[in-house]
Description:
The structure holds two protein chains of two kinds.
Chain A: E1 5-7, E2 10-13, E3 19-24, E4 31-37, E5 44-50, E6 53-57, E7 65-68, E8 75-79, E9 88-95, E10 106-107, E11 111-115
Parallel strand pairs in A: 2-11
Antiparallel strand pairs in A: 1-3, 3-8, 4-5, 4-9, 5-6, 7-8, 9-10, 9-11
Chain B: E1 3-6, E2 11-14, E3 19-26, E4 30-38, E5 45-51, E6 56-59, E7 62-67, E8 72-77, E9 86-94, E10 106-111
Parallel strand pairs in B: 2-10
Antiparallel strand pairs in B: 1-3, 3-8, 4-5, 4-9, 6-7, 7-8, 9-10
Amino acid sequence: DTGVSQNPRHKITKRGQNVTFRCDPISEHNRLYWYRQTLGQGPEFLTYFQNEAQLEKSRLLSDRFSAERPKGSFSTLEIQRTEQGDSAMYLCASSPDWREAFTEAFFGQGTRLTVV
Amino acid sequence: SQKIEQNSEALNIQEGKTATLTCNYTNYSPAYLQWYRQDPGRGPVFLLLIRENEKEKRKERLKVTFDTTLKQSLFHITASQPADSATYLCAPMNSGYSTLTFGKGTMLLVSP
């Protein structure tokens, strides 16, 4: 297994356009997280999946943001009608179920979004 | 509201010295606390996890302490090297809580 994979690595889009990012977690991990990170800040939690169920969403996740994880495998994060304030690094992480045994989260390399 | 505070200014030290980074938290009752390293343009990478019943944890040149009374964790890198230059993130985690929430991180710069 090559770890958590995110695509694309970079995305430049015009304001008002929709964008979609993909995350492929480590195959045996049933938890998947999305974070947003801007310069000088730590990763900010957006949402989290346990298998295909979206169990928690941050207040940061406005109506323009939607995430899915069909069949509990890969996940997509879509941003509709992008705004310049959406420019950030979007990080995906996966982990085993922490109710069973606590281990670390594994992060992907992130998708850098620039809205012009 | 829950808050995680890390040194906001970069920490500059000389190679060979010990770096000490601080993580203070409020309105958490963490069962665990994790430390991650992040290099520019990359995702965070896990370093160490310490449990609430552990006072200290070591891994090679790294040492983490956890004081639940002071609501503080200290992260030490001994014999620091320029390759240790990165941003270090702490993440306290309440027992059974599913979200991993990070502080803003402290940038460490180790000069030769």
